Amino acid sequence: MARWNRSSFFLSAWLLAAPALAQLPLNLPQSPKPGSDALTNPAFSADVSFLFNLESNFAEDTASGGGPAFAKWFAEDAVTLSDGKAPVTGRAAIAAQATWSPETYQLTWRPEGGRMGPNGDMGFTWGHYESSFKDRDGSVKKTSGRYMTVWKKQKDNSWKVALDASNTEPPVKEDCCKLP
Q: What is the dihedral of CA 58, 64, 65, 71, to 10 degrees?
């Protein structure tokens, strides 16, 4: 007599249900694209639109005001995470490192997706960023990558950045194995 345990029961149930499940449509939400709306993307909502607006204001402020404008968007206990660098904790520490001017360094970004938490007091956005600056020789250098911003509603009902994380783009597939 075959001995049934929990694993074999679930496996049997899965095998019996699999043909029926394969017929179900999988309408998984996609990340909102810049400029998208609820008519073209079911994952786009008023909450995501709100987060996109926060992100847009944050980016515009930074483009015109540089590092000091960037730092003012952070909560007192915020954290930044960047490639190859130690975490920076607290708005004062973030501001101490964000001393660039728009004339010497340009940082631009655009959200591509976001989600609001169930309580409506935290949310996150992610997207693509680009930066440009001049090196010591005066040559213009550019970097680009991905970012994620975690937003948190403050006691005064304002919204501040709780976490800003970024990483540079991976190498292009064709550059993977080139020798210098």
A: 20
pLDDT of residue 180: 55
Q: Which helix (H) or strand (E) holds 149?
A: strand 140-153
Question: Alpha-carbon distance 89 to 36, whole Å?
Answer: 34
Cα→Cα distances 44→37, 47, 68, Å: 6, 8, 31
| Average pLDDT value for residue range 149-158 | 97
List alpha helices for 72-158, DSSP H. 91-97
End-to-end CA distance of the chain: 66
CA distance 9 to 113: 40
Quote the pTM value. Answer: 0.72
Instruction: Give the β-pairing of 74-81 and 159-168.
Output: parallel
Listed residue (104, 107, 103) closest to 129, CA to CA: 107
Token pair, residue 111, equals 């959200």
- CATH 3.90.1010.10 given to domain 46-169: no
Structure token digits, residue 51 = 């987060």
Q: Please, are residues 107 and 122 in contact by the beta-carbon 8 Å criterion? A: no
Contacts of 107 (CB under 8 A, 6+ apart): 62, 63, 70, 129, 130, 131
